Amino acid sequence: MEDIDKNEVSDSANSEDDELMLKEVIRDEADLYYLHHYLSDVLRPADDF
Amino acid sequence: MNVQSNDRVLLSRYLSGDRSAISQLIERHSRRVRDYIRMLVKDRDVAEDIFQETFIKAVRVIDEGRYCDNGKFLSWILRIAHNQVIDHFRARRQDKSVTEAEAGYDLLGSLRLAEKTVEDEIVSRQIESDVRMLIEMLPPEQREVVMMRYFGGQSFKEIAEQTGVSINTALGRMRYALINLRRMIKEKNLVLC
After folding, report:
1. Which pLDDT tens digit goes with each residue over A1-49?
2. Mean pLDDT value of segment B30-38
3. Residue B186 pLDDT more than 50?
């Protein structure tokens, strides 16, 4: 069975970048927060654009 | 391994009988879901109740075999959270204490989001395509930061270095990009799902 990449889990969950995104970009606006995660799902690095 | 792959592995483990896998899956996304709900309801105690209800609902859907794994587990969980918040506000509206518009979730529409059917998936893909076209319409410096961040997976520090601006400028461009996208999405009457 495949292993979970533990580093990826902790890095993505607690990264400084996520904090910057929350504090400086989203600023407690729920619809921007949803849009951010929507784009994260839709525009994955492996996708063709 | 990326986030989506890890979600799939955990779901697969859970469905194969590893009960601990669902706890790991919830833990992976708990902060994001909790933050989202708190932004909507502005009350920590209520948010915590809705958070618990969200994951109970999610596990029930998975247990019943109704979860369609399209690699977007977080978006799916956020939609469930959204529905739980809608239910909460509808209940409170009966007390005339708050309106849905006050909650600020226009991007998701004011209606509860139905669980997806095959037809809904087709609509979702069309909306994704529309959103990509809207990104192409952003001012170049905003489009660049969106592409580097989401498509390229780069940090704001890397984006700042590569584009020759400060991190604050890169963050500001991202904020304006999201605000502009939000406006264009509303103008096109798109509902993200």
Report:
1. 445 444 444 444 347 888 899 899 999 898 899 899 889 888 876 544 4
2. 91
3. yes
Instruction: State how far the Cα of B125 lies from the Cα of B11, in Å rounded to an integer.
Output: 23
Domain count, chain A: 1
Q: Is residue A33 part of a domain?
A: yes
Contact A41 B13 (CB under 8 A): no
Alpha helices in B42-148 (DSSP H): 44-63, 73-93, 100-103, 118-136, 140-146
Is residue B120 very low, low, confident or very high in pLDDT (cuts 50, 70, 90)?
low
Q: Could you report the predicted ipTM of this complex, rounded to two decimals?
A: 0.72
Q: Class of the B116-193 domain?
A: mainly alpha
pTM: 0.71
Domain ranges of chain B: 1-107, 116-193
Q: Using a CB-CB distance cutoff of 8 angstroms, which residues of chain A are in contact with residue B79? A: none
* Ramachandran bin of B24, using left for φ above 0, alpha for ψ from -120 to 50, beta for the remaining angles: alpha
Q: Which of A17, A22, A41 sits opposite B156 (nearest CB)?
A: A17
User: Would you call B110 an interface residue with chain A, using a CB distance cutoff of 8 Å?
Assistant: no
Report pLDDT digits (tens) over B14-29: 999 998 999 999 999 9
B43 touches chain A (CB under 8 A): no
Nearest-CA residue of chain A relative to B193?
A: A38
In angstroms, how far is CA A3 from the centroid of its own chain?
A: 21
CA gap B50, B2 in Å, rounded: 28
CATH class of this structure's domain B1-107: mainly alpha
